[in-house]
Q: What sequence folds into this?
C-alpha cells in the first residue's frame, strides 16, 4: 500500500471520529495510534508528513452543499477535521522541510479569511436548522491542535472545589469559535453510525468537556469551562469512592496506560440488573447517554464510582 493510500485508509477508518472524544487532540491521536494499525504504519512512513500536507492542501476552499449528497459532504467535512488534527501532531509536522511547512501555513492562512463568511452563514443555519448553501473550509482545527501543544488554546483561570481545592480551567470566551451546524451534523452522523445504541443528548460543542460536565455544571447552555484533570475533585474532602453504582454518582474511567493517561468522567443516570446508563461529554464533541461499555473510554480503564 502506498503512503497516499495509507492516508486515505486512515481518514476512512470507521472509528477515526474517536479522535474528538478526548481531553486534547494529541491524546485522541495517541489513543488511535495505539489501537489502529493503519495509523501506526503511517507513523513509520518517511513521506507521511508530505502526503498528509498534500492531501490537506487539496481540500476545496468552498463547496456548494446543494450540489453533492449529504453523506459525501459529511465525509469531506469530517476528513478535513481529521487531517487538521493529524497534520498538527509533532510526529508529522516536524518532518516537513522549511519550504513545505511555509507552503502549508500559507495555505491554511489563506483559508482563514473564510471564517467570517462561514460564521455568517452558520448564524442563519442555526436559526433554520438547515445546512447553508455553501461550506467554507477554514482549517481552524489545525491551529487549535497546534495551540493546545503550547497551552495557548484558551483563556486560563481557576475555580474551587467544594472543599476549597484549586482546579485549573480553560474558559470559553466570545472570541472562541465553536463548530458550525454542518460540522455538528457530520459528527453526529459518524457517532450514530459507530455507536448506534448511544443517545445524543446535546450537539457537539467545544465549550466544555467531560470533567467540567460531571463535576462542575450540567448546564449545556451556560457551562463555558474545560477542565483537563479531575484529580482535585477526587481528592476533595467531600468526595467518597464507593463500590456500587447508583443514580447521581460520578463515574470515573481511570486510564491505566502511562503513555496515554487520559481519564474520563460522567454521571450515572440509571442502574438496572444488567447495565449502568451514563451521561457524559465526549471531548469537544457530543453530550451522550450510553452504557459504561458503549463509548470510546472503556478499554484499558479502571471504572470507579464517586459521591460528591
A:
Amino acid at each position: 500500500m502506498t503512503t497516499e493510500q495509507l492516508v486515505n485508509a486512515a481518514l476512512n477508518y470507521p472509528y477515526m471520529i474517536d479522535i474528538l472524544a478526548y481531553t486534547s487532540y494529541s491524546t485522541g491521536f495517541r489513543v488511535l495510534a495505539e489501537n489502529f494499525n493503519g495509523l501506526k504504519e503511517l507513523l513509520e512512513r518517511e513521506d507521511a508528513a508530505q502526503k498528509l500536507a498534500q492531501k490537506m492542501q487539496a481540500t476545496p476552499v468552498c463547496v456548494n452543499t446543494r450540489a453533492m449528497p449529504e453523506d459525501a459532504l459529511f465525509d469531506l467535512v469530517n476528513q478535513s477535521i481529521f487531517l487538521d488534527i493529524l497534520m498538527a501532531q509533532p510526529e508529522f509536522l516536524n518532518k516537513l522541510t522549511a519550504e513545505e511547512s511555509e507552503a502549508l501555513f500559507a495555505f491554511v492562512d489563506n483559508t482563514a479569511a473564510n471564517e467570517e463568511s462561514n460564521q455568517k452563514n452558520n448564524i442563519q443555519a442555526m436559526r433554520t436548522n438547515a445546512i447553508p448553501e455553501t461550506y467554507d473550509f477554514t482549517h481552524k482545527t489545525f491551529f487549535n491542535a497546534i495551540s493546545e501543544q503550547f497551552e495557548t488554546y484558551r483563556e486560563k483561570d481557576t475555580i474551587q472545589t467544594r472543599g476549597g481545592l484549586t482546579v485549573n480551567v480553560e474558559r470559553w470566551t466570545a472570541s472562541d469559535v465553536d463548530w458550525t451546524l454542518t460540522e455538528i451534523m457530520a459528527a453526529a452522523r459518524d457517532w450514530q453510525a459507530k455507536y448506534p445504541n448511544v443517545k445524543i443528548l446535546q450537539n457537539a460543542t467545544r465549550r466544555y468537556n467531560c470533567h467540567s460536565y460531571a463535576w462542575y455544571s450540567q448546564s449545556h447552555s451556560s457551562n463555558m469551562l474545560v477542565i483537563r484533570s479531575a484529580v482535585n475533585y477526587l481528592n476533595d474532602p467531600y468526595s467518597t469512592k464507593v463500590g456500587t453504582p447508583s443514580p447521581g454518582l460520578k463515574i470515573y474511567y481511570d486510564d491505566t496506560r502511562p503513555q496515554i493517561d487520559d481519564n474520563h468522567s460522567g454521571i450515572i443516570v440509571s442502574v438496572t440488573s444488567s447495565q449502568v446508563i451514563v451521561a457524559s461529554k465526549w471531548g469537544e464533541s457530543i453530550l451522550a447517554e450510553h452504557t459504561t461499555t458503549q463509548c470510546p473510554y472503556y478499554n484499558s480503564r479502571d471504572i470507579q464510582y464517586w459521591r460528591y
